[in-house]
Amino acid sequence: MLDSAGAWQPDTPPPRIAVICHTHPSVSKGGAEIAAYSVFRGLRNLGHDALFIACCSDADRGRLHLGLPQERAIFFEPRRYDHFYHRGTLPVARELTRLLQAEGVGLANFHHYMSLGLGAIEAAKRQAGAVVVVTLHEYLAICHNHGQMVTRPARSLCDGASPEACNECFPEHHRSQFVLRREGFRRAFRSVDGFISPSCFLADRYADWGLEPARIEVIENGLLGLTGAPTPPRPRRGGEWVFGYFGQINEFKGVDLLLRAAALLAERRDLAGCFQLRVHGNLVGRPSFVEAFERATEEFPFFSYAGAYANSTVRRLMAECDYVVVPSTWWENSPTVIQEAYAAGRPVLCSGIGGMAEKVPEGVTGLHFRPGSAADLVRAMEEAADAATHARLAAALPRPFDETEMARQYLAAFAAAGRRAVPAAAAAGPEAGGGTGPVDRRPPAADCVHS
Amino acid sequence: MNPLSASLVNESDSTIRGLVEIANPRRGIHGWTLDLAAPDRPLRVELLLDGKVVADCLTDRARDDIGLAGHAAPAAGFCFDAATCRHASEGAPEGGRFAVRVAAAQRLLRSAGPLPTAAEMAPPLPAEPAGGPPLPAIAVQENPLAALQVVEALAGRLLQQPLVPLADRVVGYIEAMAWEQTGLIWIFGWMQRQLPRHFPAVIVDGARYRAAAVLTGFARTDLPEDATGICGMLRTDWRPSSKGPAPWLHFGDTAQYALPVVEDLAFLSDKECTSRIEALRRANALEGEFTTPLRRLLATTRNWAPDNAAALGLEVRANLERLLVLPGFGCLAEGWVLSPLQPVSHFMLRVGRAVLVSEPGATSRKPRPDLLGLAPGGQKMVAKAGFVTAFAGRIEEEDLGEAVLKIVLADGSSTNHRVEPGHARIVGHSAAIEDMLALFPALHAEGFFPALSASIGERQGRDIRKAEAFALRPCREALVAVVPDDLPDMALLFDELSRLAWSGPPEQRPGIALLASAGQHRAAVLAHLHDLGGDEAGGPSLFFVADPETAIYALPEVLARLEAERFAFIGPHVTPSEAGWAALLAGLAAAESGPLVPAGDAAALGMDLADPAECFLWNRRDTTAWLQATPAFLGGLASRELALPAPQPLPGEGVAAWRGRRAVPGLLAQRINRHLRPPQAGAVVEKRDA
Predict the structure, then answer these.
(1) Which of A199, B14, B267, B649 could form a disulfide with A334 if both were Cys (CB 3.0 to 4.6 A apart)?
(2) Whether A183 contacts chain B with CB within 8 A
(3) Of A233-237, A312-316, A438-442, where does mean pLDDT reach its minimum?
(4) Beta strands in A219-334 (DSSP E)
(5) Given an 8 Å threshold on Cβ–Cβ distance, is B578 in contact with A187?
(6) Do A430 and B581 count as a contact with CB atoms less than 8 A apart?
(7) What is the pLDDT of residue B312?
(8) pLDDT tens digits for B466-504?
């Protein structure tokens, strides 16, 4: 058992911890994969013999690279995975269970259930007898639209899911299927001893949805391999302000907003001459978007594409900017790019919603603009283009922590989950003797739990 | 388990094996039997009613599902068809029960369910369909085929009469017959002179068939003065058979007259028939008002050479653009006709061997201005060039072949027009039921709608009660789950079932039987089946059925094949709650009567609960009886027409079954279902709808 500081109590042997993810960072470098791998490396830094288990597509065998002997992979058939109810196949759940039992795992930290299926979570609890902790990375249990909580096809922000509202977004599914989807998640989550959310905003959304608030711990994502101090302010030649975007370049990340802002800036000669809008990342949008993007780089001298970047270079590239812009049009959770900006010593301009607004207090470590509003983004850029403002914001930036500190906080959350853990039989279905009553309908959370 | 080891006659020391698999008024009594000592030797099977032999037959039907080593498909199947069973039931004590035995062994065959009684096998004949306006009388002189069609429909009331072959009802005999390619029957014989010559009738040869007759007379020197020779035409679905009793034609207001068929009936060829009529005509022997129309009929029905308008010098152009075929009922058709010199009297259609006449009350004309190019200046003609009509009459699927449209003009002449094969669709196969609304937007208000509904129901009933075993593992208690066609719902079901796979060794779990369609997701079903141990002993059974929504109708066959006495049924898109699963599994092991349903409190659970018929626990015997008496409603469970008799709630808190996706049948299907409802159920359903 763990104590509240994350150390094992002397009278109990430490359980072996497995960090389980829906893929491996060598295959995909999404936020959840990076966070999961950071926890794994942090745990190992703290001396724990942790395992990293990636559930990879059978088609990704060639790209998969397991860096350490403690990394394992199990494989699933993508065509057979059900992305609506998130049900995997029995062989995948069996293989995970076998692996957990063979490796003597006592605590399973899922960073996703996708690819594995919700049944894998229940199997880890019931068949492998592990303490189960799930880290929530987006709103997938609440929203079928890639867990983004934006409507389809309008892509407006969604404030709360309901079978009726979800049916409007997905008329191809029946209303009652959304009821069953929700109940399926709730039942699987009854096998979970604790949840971790990287943001209060996401924790609140899940509490509103029905998760018991006391079971959710909020732990910020750490940065893998964080070293050194933040970079000092960039010497600006000729008074030019550089705003940088970092991430995948597509309309869903709000880059279309940057294009529209560039068009507005072009009409403002007073601003166009002293602003640089620099975009970094992979260009992966639809052909029409790519065409518009390339046209903007040719048309506007202040708008440039700096190409793709490696994670190891992101802080240097950010340091060559004055601000980092995060224009996402969905709520986000805890975008790593914000932590990276803070690590680089750069304030952030972001959409004033969700996890972004939480991580970037308005006027403290950055400035907000209305999501989707190019005019308001230009207004925020104009406000930011002031030396005193920049200095004030930069001075207030928090110092992100690394993977070891992240793992330390996770260990404390694991300990709390271990204390709450219910026996496998009680979390099991009726055939294992643990039948349950009606659906849990407790009122939503008044507050979230911070670690 | 091999069927051979499970399906015994009532004594286990015999080498005779067999089983009565089907016994109901629609299909008769079917099954199989063989002697393990001589599997290739046909066995004589006797049908007993109240202990007396009422029919017998030899095993002669190949059965590839029996699994006898060295005999891929022994000819072990037998069948007493519905007509034979009905005929045997007539006059028998109502409570007398059928049984089947192998003559050589003098031992009764076991049955998948209780065999019916005489009363159950010969239920009261259905009442005349109601709801449509009475059909208008058609003069034989104007349109003899249409008149026959109308009069045949009126024969329904005779079906209610006791049709007994009594000698004092005999008013003559039928001595010769000739079959038209078109399905019509020419008859020759004699009868008493003063009787009607155009009448509805019923032919009884064990089964009963509607008929209509139009006759003309001729003098015969071999007859007494009050009798006359007769020559005429019958319209009927009856066909001659070497089996069963000799047919009798009953007619008259109360079926007080009868024309039996003589034992040495002469079967005439087309040529002999035509020659005989022509000889009578030349001798001016034919007499009576129907002589001329019958001669025209002879000419009309024997001339179907397509595209003959130009050869006949008739300026008629026509095209049948859409033909919706309903086997068992007839066709709905849409097309156009341009006839500048004569008005069109009516339409005829030949499909394969069947010849149908347009329903006079169901034909409408409409403008087709797009045809002005074919008829320059013919605005008035194209104003009524389009037509929509119904051709009522039985078409069997094996009859479907080249179709020819005949345009019959006012003077009785006619032209034939080939129907492009691509214009024909079979409703339920290549056309949706709703497609009929494009031709008849108020189809439900048409006079022929009850008959159309009945034929659709009958056709549906034939298909949905079958199940093809892909993997068969007999079990006494079975969890029978229908696999939805929707992939997410399929994944959900198998994920729920996988919990059973975790729960312990196979011998401690109930058997699982899956009913799935062999449609586009067949491979997905097989993959899931494999995951659940489909290739292992104790793994699930799998049956392919016509449609998941109607899979419930296959339960009697599935349960018989499984030899399951008790089962839990989980319909498509139904998910029991955790407590619901527990209650169903516990109930399977109990011996309580049923049906029991997981009937949770919908308001408390905030869910849409499944209907009782969508998820229940019951036994094979009662379920089989219930489903055999339940009409084949379109949409199956989604129609919400299936009413489980007196369901009782399974005990326990939170015991419920949730309903997911359900494709509610369209309005037309619902209207057809209303016609399929048994009378006593109608009031209940109406109340529920209200």
Answers:
(1) A199
(2) yes
(3) A438-442
(4) 241-246, 275-280, 303-307, 323-326
(5) yes
(6) yes
(7) 63
(8) 999 999 999 999 999 999 999 999 999 999 998 877 666
Question: What CA–CA distance (Å, rounded) separates A345 from A358?
Answer: 18
Domains, chain A: 16-225+404-450 (3.40.50.2000), 237-395 (3.40.50.2000)
Q: B582–A432: do the CB atoms touch at under 8 Å? A: no
Please report which confidence band the pLDDT of residue B135 belongs to, taking 50, 70 and 90 as the band edges. very low
pLDDT tens for A330-352 read 999 999 999 999 999 999 999 99
Q: Please check the confidence at residue B87 and state whether its pLDDT lies above 80.
A: no
Do residues B284 and B339 share a domain? no
Q: What total of structural domains would you count in chain B?
A: 4
CATH code, domain carrying B631: 3.90.550
Identify the helix (H) or strand (E) that includes residue B57. Answer: strand B52-58
Same domain, B458 and B470: no
Q: Which of B269, B301, B333 is the last residue of a domain?
A: B301
The chain B residue lying nearest A179, using CA atoms, is B607
In chain B, residues 324-343 whose CB comes closer than 8 Å to chain A? none
Q: CB contact, 8 Å: B361 with chain A?
A: no
Q: Which two tokens stand for residue B666?
A: 């369209």
Measured between CA atoms, how close is A144 to chain B, in angstroms?
Answer: 12
Q: Between these two residues, B89 and B602, which has the higher pLDDT value? A: B89
The mean of the pLDDT values for chain B is 83
Distance from CA of B501 to the nearest CA of A (A): 9
Residue A163 near chain B (CB below 8 Å): no
Please name the residue of chain B whose CA is at the shortest distance from the CA of residue A163.
B607
Positive or negative, the CA dihedral A98, A103, A106, A109 is negative
In chain A, the residue whose alpha carbon lies closest to the alpha carbon of B502 is A127
Peptide bond into B200 cis (omega under 30): no
Residue of B495, B508, B601 for testing the chain A interface, max A β-carbons within 10 Å: B495
Give the nearest chain A residue to B498 (CA atoms).
A90
Assigned token pair, A248: 């995948």
Contact across the interface for B492 and A183, Cβ inside 8 Å:
no
pLDDT at B653: 85
Test mutation, A77, A89, A90, chain B, max B CBs within 10 A? A90
State the Cα–Cα distance between residues A18 and A103, nearest whole angstrom: 9
| Contact flag A439-B605 (C-beta cutoff 8 Å) | yes
Q: Residue B682 above 70 pLDDT?
A: no
Asked whether residue B672 carries a pLDDT value surpassing 90, the answer given is yes
Within a domain: residue B432?
Answer: yes
B604/A438 Cβ within 8 A: yes
Task: Please say if the pLDDT value at position A260 is more than 90.
Answer: yes
Q: DSSP code of A194?
A: E
Percentage of chain B modeled with pLDDT above 90: 34
For residues B507 and B599, membership in a common domain is answered with yes
Residue with tokens 């949008």: A285
B544 shares a domain with B481: yes
Residue numbers in B near A187 (CB within 8 A): 578
The CA-atom distances, in angstroms, between A268 and each of A383, A414, B247 are: 14, 54, 100
Q: Is the ipTM of this complex over 0.90?
A: no
Contacts of A129 in chain B (CB under 8 A): none
Cβ atoms A135, A222 nearer than 8 A: no
pLDDT at A8 over 70: no
Average model confidence (pLDDT) across chain A: 88
Nearest to B381 by CA among B439, B315, B337: B337
Interface residue A429 vs chain B (CB under 8 A): yes
φ and ψ at B461, to 5 degrees? -65, -30
For residues B550 and B676, state if they share a domain.
Answer: yes
Q: What angle do CA B655, B657, B663 make, to 5 degrees?
A: 165
The predicted-structure confidence for B420-457, as pLDDT tens digits, reads as follows: 888 889 898 889 999 999 999 999 999 899 889 988 98
Q: Cβ of B536: how many Cβ atoms within 10 Å?
A: 11
Question: Where in the sequence is the domain holding B672, given as residue range(s)?
Answer: 465-689
pLDDT tens profile B387-396: 999 998 877 6
pLDDT of residue A354: 96
Whether residues B249 and B350 share a domain: the answer is: no
